[in-house]
Amino acid sequence: MENKNITTKIIVCSYEELTETEKKLVDTAKEASNRSYAPYSRFQVGAAALLSGGLIISGSNQENAAYPSGICAERTTLFYANSQYPDLAVESLAIAAQTGGSFIERPTAPCGACRQVILETEERYRHPIRIYLYGTDEIYIVESIRGLLPLCFGKNDLPE
Ligand code: THU
Fold it and tell me: Which ligand 1 atom lies nearest to the CA of residue 73?
């Protein structure tokens, strides 16, 4: 028997340490959270994606009285990007959440289903997606969804 350790590099930084482009991406995710429709959880999430060429698009979580019919901010954003701009790779993604009128302190991490969709997007465009998890205390940056989804199941696990 042996032990295997899987490690993830997470860059921890403050908003002030981001470049202007990174700040714009995070700001866009924060703004998008204002357009969330979250009457049930009151947890308003925004996401912003930087596409190759520089276009930034955004989305927010959209809930439903039949709970599973809602969708997270990350998937709203990526599905919009992939359907409107199918020829542009997603280069980076920022996520921010607020509740009760305040952005949350800890970095907001994507749920499991969104991680899987982020992985699909990376594989579709053969381009790692740099992910910014915004919190008012600190920001986490990971270079690829693989850091948040080790031992992932992707397209190469299916027969051709
Ligand atoms: N949610 C997101 O939009 N993204 C996340 O990363 C975590 C959770 C949404 C789903 C639901 O509308 C609400 O937040 C509470 O789970």
Answer: 3
Which pLDDT tens digit goes with each residue over 54-90? 999 999 999 999 999 999 999 999 999 999 999 999 9
Q: Does pTM top 0.70 for this prediction?
A: yes
Q: How far is CA 108 from CA 14, 48, 68, 71, 104, in A?
A: 14, 13, 20, 16, 8
Q: Is the pLDDT of residue 94 over 90?
A: yes
Q: Which tokens in the block code for residue 94?
A: 């920022």
- Cβ atoms of 72 and 79 within 8 Å: the answer is no
Per DSSP, 36 falls in state -
Are the C-beta atoms of residues 108 and 95 closer than 8 Å to each other? Answer: yes
**Residue 4 CA, ligand 1 centroid: distance in Å:** 32
- Tokens standing for residue 88: 């542009």
Q: Considering only CA atoms, which residue is closest to atom 9 of ligand 1?
A: 72
Helix (H/G/I), strand (E/B), else coil: 73: helix
Residue 100 has pLDDT above 90, yes or no: yes
Question: What are the CA-CA distances from residue 159 to residues 14, 24, 62, 66, 155 (Å)?
Answer: 43, 40, 34, 35, 9
| Contact present, 84 and 57 (Cβ < 8 Å) | yes
